[in-house]
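Example record used in the benchmark description.
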Amino acid sequence: PVIILVKAVVSTQSGHYGRGEFITTRYAMPAKNGADGTLYSYPNNPRAQLIQISAQYGGSDVQMASNFEFGVTNKSAEFLAKFPFGQVPAFESNGVCLNDTMAIASFVGGSDLRGSDEVSRATITQFMNMAETQLFPAACQVLYPCWGLMPNNKNVVNKGHENIKSFMTVLDNHLLDKTYLVGESVTLADLTLAVYMRDLYSMILDEGRRNSFVNVTRWFTTIINQDEVLRILGPTSLCEKPAQFDAKLFQQNNPKPQKNAPKKKKVPTATLR
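Model output (structure tokens):
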């Protein structure tokens, strides 16, 4: 194995979006099983972090684009020529341009993370899709008000809690006699769900809630403390007191227009991208 130096941002707060400290560490990369390249994304994006973790398992040298500016770089003609959808994360490797989180994670993570047979690969894909379509939207309904990104609509928040509880209950039953979601080793299924659950475990699921899902919590702490995960995310603190709606932060993110402020000139629809 090759010994390399890694500089990673370790969060100093419970969630992904706090300020961090740079640490430099030395470790042995596994045999290459993925693909090297450049990753475009904004800081602390959980989707990009999933890709970076997958790269650790695949022995892939994935470098973050140092000059990327969200809303500027991804709207430039040069970027759109490679990634027509203009979305991030985006990944470039020897002329290969990918613009989907799961596709990139699979590409850089290599065959070991994708599963050893057709049934395993299909099951792993199933869990990854469930994380994206079921867990992630429900988590946003609960977490976004805490970050001041959504108003405190109790119906929406309660629905999010209900969906999370339903999802976690099914997962808890699945993990009753299993260490990993699929097979006997870490796969993309484990990494995807664990990364998408991280803020829930840091900010929402206090000890009482965690005790309702003992199998999921056991599995989560196993995955989140893998060396490959720790190199990217650092330690994850479990929630002591659930976060609440932050009215002050919401007002900062959504300032009310001044009464005498001049009206903005309407931009013709045809000129919008």
